[in-house]
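Subject: Sanity check before I submit

Could someone independently write out the structure tokens for this chain? I want to compare against mine line by line before I put it in a report. The sequence has 213 residues.
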Amino acid sequence: MIFDKNTAKKTAELLLSIKAIKLQPEEPFTWASGWSSPIYCDNRTTLSYVMIRNYIRENLSKIISEKYGKPNVIAGVATGAIAIGALVAQDLGVPFIYVRPEPKKHGRKNQIEGFLDSGQNIVVIEDLISTGKSSLNAVKALRDANANVMGMVAIFNYGFNIAEDNFKEANVELTTLSNYENLLDQALDTNYINDKQLETLKTWGKNPSEWKV
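---
Independent answer below. Compare away.
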């Protein structure tokens, strides 16, 4: 779910303004999964814009404080959420760790980087939610290390049904600054897209894995 409507619209506006999110219904992107997509999101772009970076940090911190109080640790999901997660941890005055997709093949073979004590309360930071698979892989690693994962907060969520199902099955509460629905509202309100493009984008959102131009 989104934190609130105003934050969702403002976040969408900021992400569009710096092209962290691009909408190209007529010239779709190809994701690593092989899906054709009229949208591409790279929230790491926000790190290059101080005002926007601060806005995201402040609002992610606000969500955590209001929903969970002060956790023992903030965990970022590698690699996209490492930087913003560290900024949020600094804002809240708590330790930071990050979680790799899988353990390293050498050295100490860590999957979790940083100090984590058994039983600590953790909020996980993610930059982007698509199917939720990689995000929930990080949650599993933390739970396997006997951490208490209180919830996850993220910048943007595509709103796929499969993600909702995956988070529900894993019993993880997800809150995001913005999502696909609010992005489309903002894009239409600012004439970034027209009504015809809006319908194309809505169609993709209903069945992204099978969508073609």
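---
OP: Matches mine. For the report I'm noting this point. The radius of gyration is 17 Å.
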